[in-house]
């Protein structure tokens, strides 16, 4: 089941550097929320706080609260490993495991949680690959290496890998920025289908993409280089792209800066 | 061929097309490229020629000795090349070399991989650096020093270990101890393990350091613990590198001379137990016999050296096959 995300008063640091300051927002289940903003505004950093990947970076540290339904991801006694099993992630560059077959890539997360029955695995792998619109292209070569696929196929393989463990939320960090337009379109269609089952948060540099795929859009900005990134506004995508309430947002989406 | 290069070099106002074409076919003709090509090609040819020369020398001298050998060169437990008639065989040496190297690898590879993982993935940077530095230093210690340490420190300390092995594993036969001095194949293996540990650690460390961040993050984002990241992303990625590292270590173990000669009580017999003193290795046997050998004795020793050469080639070939067999799943495709 998709879950709701409720962020309040979140600061993210790299060592002593405050990268993202005082972010609060609510993300509804089964919606697509796009994060846009100029480079360095902290949107990727913020995204990575939502599955506790930020603290993997040396010096990475987070203050504040991220509620996943009723559970604070940064509460005492919460294991980051179990958080990441609930909140899946797709990265900027496709990163299937080169040493594994297509099948094993999709099954990788399932094996971590101990789901080891072959027939069950087969079903989930097929379902996940179908869910990622990749099944028809790879069903005859499941035992071939994942690195032999095209970039767009690899990215869909990574999506299949992420959704195979049935996360509540799917985070996507510029998932199409390394892909050609046709592969991009395939991923965008897929996002539209996946939002029936997951809460999706996507970081993108492509404003048309944000307008095409998202229900809500959050605009991030920073005052100057070296200053922390901030959430300027979050609203329905339609409104952000037609009549935003903050001037900076309009300047950015109309291409006047950034 | 690159057209722009041709244009660039076509400085004269009336370039002759035929000369230009020829130049284009040969590729670039800039002096720097030509010199570098010559140097690198020359180095490659030199290496091959050197290998061929060694093989020819070993084969020629070995053939001289083996043709006079009255015993079976491969199965005889004896080394009397100067006897009349000459009788010598490499069975004991081949057995000792291979067994001591297997013991060394069995001990060194897991430990080396463990140290390399600790340095790259567990230790804080402040600790990992110094450890890596110390291990670099260990790799530079001459083998005679390891041999001295082995003979003067290690051997006298081993009674305890031997007694323990005999108490608990003596029933297997291969770890039974009759109470002799611990100058056996096991001791050789332990010392060799210590000697090859640094090189395997260093190369493995470099390989593990090359694992792309995004591979490790992929595993983390799936909910992998630190150990699971290593199992999922780091070890498979480093697999071929660790095999290569182990081959470097194995090469040293197979050919180690002085250290082995200093801790082993050599004899021309194969013991049932690894804990009984005796046995020998190719390199140790050559080192201890060469200085006093006659012409015939030297040829016999060279024949044994040829066998070591062939064993090394076979082992390296096998390692390459193992790596090549899973080439399409190599971490290099990331």
Structure write-up:
The complex is a heterodimer of chains A (258) and B (334). Chain A is α/β, with parallel strands linked by helices. Chain A has a domain at 5-95 and 169-253: P-loop containing nucleotide triphosphate hydrolases (Rossmann fold, 3-Layer(aba) Sandwich). Helices cover 35% and strands 26% of the residues of chain A. Chain A is built from ten helices and ten strands. Chain A has helices at 43-49, 80-86, 102-112, 118-131, 135-138, 151-164, 181-194, 207-213, 237-242, 247-253; strands at 5-14, 17-27, 32-36, 60-68, 71-72, 87-90, 169-173, 199-203, 216-222, 229-236. In chain A, the strands form two sheets. A six-stranded mixed sheet of chain A has the order 6-7-8-3-9-10, with helices on both faces. The mean pLDDT of chain A is 91. Chain B is mainly α and 334 residues long. Chain B folds into two domains: 3-68, no CATH class; 87-333, MetI-like (MetI-like fold). Chain B has helices at 3-9, 17-26, 31-68, 91-122, 125-140, 143-157, 159-169, 185-209, 213-221, 226-255, 258-263, 282-290, 295-325, and strands at residues 79-80, 87-88. In chain B, strands 1-2 form a two-stranded antiparallel sheet. In chain B, β1 (79-80) and β2 form a beta hairpin. The radius of gyration of chain B is 26 Å and the shape is globular. The A-B interface holds A 51, 53, 56, 81-82, 84-85, 88-89, 91, 93, 95-101, 108-109, 112-113, 144-145, 147-148, 158, 161-162, 165 and B 212, 214-215, 217-225, 228, 232-233, 236-237, 239, 328-334.
